[in-house]
Structures are given as structure tokens and as C-alpha cells.
């Protein structure tokens, strides 16, 4: 969506508010919390759940209990024991660096390679790790990012569109169709069942969500499973002309801006 169009939409919406509502909106902008942006913030969010200094005690990652005591050190790492579930843990339990022998600096370097979309062999060379480790780390980060997405709720102006990828059976020993040579396009034109639909949403604070919904063109139920309760009520929902978005916007109490085809 072009910047001029967004400014025009905001002006129209602002003028429709009462004087008190306009002042309340301007006051809320002054107190708007800063969202995570940039490479460094993303690296910190991926590497550990809490980028602040580590507390003297932490909640149990297994049962979330606060009844925790120290349980000695192992290789210089403080261990804890939960008095509720009797399980032990460290600060890195349930994070991607758990039981990793590499330093945080190596992980940060790898995250930069990951964000720059370097191939695995180049990541391994830059970080001084072997290819198998580079492969495992990539999937640890992908899993962590997916878990982070499950807790994100978008707000403000949210732009939504679907992207499509050819259905791939790479690594599968049982093929439901004839194999395609590398670089071969799908055999059916248009949005057929050979295409994977991934609805994507992003707001102007830089947060985004993307999740596989269906094969081919998504149904209303497919969109609902991805979008429902993931956008804060009252937000501006900007979409293309696909009719399914109208029902989703109504069900989630969103202000819907529909961009007509060809615009």
C-alpha cells in the first residue's frame, strides 16, 4: 500500500472522530510502547526469552512455579530445582542455546547469517561450526520463531495478503504424483491444489505473522484458522478484493479497507 494512500486513509479516519476522541488518540501516540525492531533486537528475542539481566531466581520452565531453589553449579552454569515438579533446569532450558557448547557470540553471528539468508555451508564457514550443526541450528531458530508467532497479536494498521508456493515432496520416499525435474513449474495453471497458500499479515510496527492455511485458494474456514483472534479488535484491516476477508473482518470486529482488483 502506497504511503500517500495510507496518509489519506488516516486523515479521513481522524476527521471522523470527535474532539475528545482525537485528543485521546494523540495522547496515546505519545505513550505508544516501542516494538522490537532491527537485527540486534531480533537476535536477543530469539536467543533468550528475557534480554534483561538474569534474575537471582527464575520461574520453572516446566510448570511455571515460583517455588525454586538453587541446585549447585555444573561447568560454571547455575542450576535450579523446582519444589513443585522436582525437575532441574538452568537459565537456558527451553531456549535454542540449551546444552550448546558454543558461546552466545557464535549464536549471534549465526543469527546474522540466518537473517541474511546465507546457505548452510557459508553459515558454517563464518561461524566455525560443521555443516550438521549449522543445519540443526537453523531448525532450532525456525522452531523458536514459530513459537514466538503463536504469542503475537497484531494491532494498528494490519496489511494482509496471501503468498503461494509450489507443493514440494522433497525428501519423501512416497510420491503421490510424478516427480518434477528441478526448475519444473507446476502442471496446473492458476491456484490449484499444487500450490500451498500462506496468508501473511504485517503491521506498521514491524510485527508479522505467516502460516500455511490450505492447498490452493483458501476457504473462509482456512482464513479464520489463521487470522481469528490474531488481530486486536478495532484495528484497520487492509486486504485485496478476496471476499473471504470481509467475513473475517466482521467476525473479528475490524475496520476493513478493501483494495479493489487492479488498484
Key words describing this protein structure:
263 residues; alpha+beta; Nucleotidyltransferase, domain 5; six-stranded mixed beta sheet; three-stranded antiparallel beta sheet; 8 helices
SSE blueprint and pairings:
Elements: H1 3-15, H2 19-30, H3 38-47, E1 68-74, E2 77-82, E3 88-89, H4 104-115, H5 120-127, H6 131-149, E4 157-166, E5 195-203, E6 208-210, E7 214-215, H7 220-227, E8 236-239, H8 244-251, E9 255-258
Describe it.
The protein is an alpha+beta fold. It has a domain at 157-169 and 192-258: Ribonuclease H-like superfamily/Ribonuclease H (Nucleotidyltransferase, domain 5), CATH 3.30.420. It has helices at 3-15, 19-30, 38-47, 104-115, 120-127, 131-149, 220-227, 244-251; strands spanning 68-74, 77-82, 88-89, 157-166, 195-203, 208-210, 214-215, 236-239, 255-258. Helix 3 packs across helix 4 (104-115), helix 5 packs across helix 6 (131-149) and helix 7 (220-227) crosses helix 8. The chain starts with a helix and ends in a 5-residue tail after the last strand.
Compact description:
The chain is 34% helix and 18% strand. With 263 residues, the protein is α+β, with helices and mostly antiparallel strands.
CATH topology of one domain: Nucleotidyltransferase, domain 5
Q: CATH superfamily membership of one domain, which one?
A: Ribonuclease H-like superfamily/Ribonuclease H
Query: Structural class of the secondary structure composition?
Result: alpha+beta
Low-confidence blocks of residues: 33-39, 49-54
The biggest beta sheet is recorded as: 6 strands, mixed
CATH class of one domain: Alpha Beta
- Principal-axes geometry comes out as globular
How many extended strands? 9
Q: What's the helix-strand series?
A: HHHEEEHHHEEEEHEHE
User: Counting H and I runs of at least 4 residues, what is the number of helices?
Assistant: 8
Distance between the termini: 10 Å
* CATH architecture type of one domain: 2-Layer Sandwich
- Could you tell me the strand content as a percent range? 15-25%
Summarize the amount of helix as a percent range.
Answer: 25-40%
Radius of gyration: 23 Å
Mean pLDDT rating = 76
Amino acid at each position: 500500500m502506497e504511503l500517500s494512500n495510507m496518509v489519506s486513509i488516516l486523515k479521513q479516519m481522524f476527521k471522523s472522530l470527535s474532539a475528545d476522541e482525537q485528543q485521546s488518540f494523540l495522547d496515546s501516540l505519545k505513550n505508544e510502547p516501542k516494538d522490537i525492531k532491527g537485527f540486534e533486537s531480533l537476535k536477543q528475542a530469539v536467543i533468550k526469552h528475557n534480554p534483561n539481566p538474569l534474575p537471582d531466581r527464575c520461574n520453572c520452565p516446566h510448570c511455571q512455579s515460583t517455588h525454586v531453589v538453587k541446585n549447585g553449579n555444573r561447568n560454571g552454569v547455575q542450576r535450579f530445582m523446582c519444589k513443585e515438579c522436582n525437575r532441574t533446569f538452568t537459565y537456558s532450558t527451553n531456549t535454542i542455546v540449551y546444552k550448546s557448547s558454543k558461546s552466545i557470540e557464535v549464536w549471534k553471528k549465526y543469527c546474522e547469517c540466518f537473517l541474511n539468508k546465507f546457505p548452510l555451508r557459508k553459515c558454517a564457514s563464518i561461524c566455525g561450526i560443521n555443516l550438521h550443526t549449522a543445519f540443526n541450528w537453523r531448525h532450532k531458530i525456525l522452531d523458536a520463531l514459530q513459537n514466538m508467532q503463536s504469542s503475537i497479536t497484531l494491532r494498528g494498521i494490519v496489511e494482509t495478503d496471501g503468498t503461494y508456493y509450489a507443493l514440494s515432496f522433497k525428501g519423501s520416499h512416497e510420491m503421490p504424483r510424478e516427480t518434477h525435474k528441478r526448475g519444473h513449474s507446476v502442471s496446473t495453471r492458476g491456484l490449484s491444489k499444487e500450490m500451498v497458500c500462506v496468508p501473511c499479515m504485517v503491521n506498521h510496527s514491524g510485527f508479522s505473522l505467516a502460516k500455511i492455511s490450505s492447498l490452493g485458494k483458501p476457504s473462509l474456514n482456512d482464513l479464520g484458522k489463521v487470522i481469528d483472534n490474531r488481530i486486536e479488535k478495532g484495528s484497520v484491516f487492509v486486504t485485496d478484493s478476496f471476499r473471504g476477508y470481509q467475513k473475517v473482518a466482521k467476525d473479528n470486529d475490524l475496520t476493513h479497507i478493501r483494495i479493489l482488483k487492479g488498484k
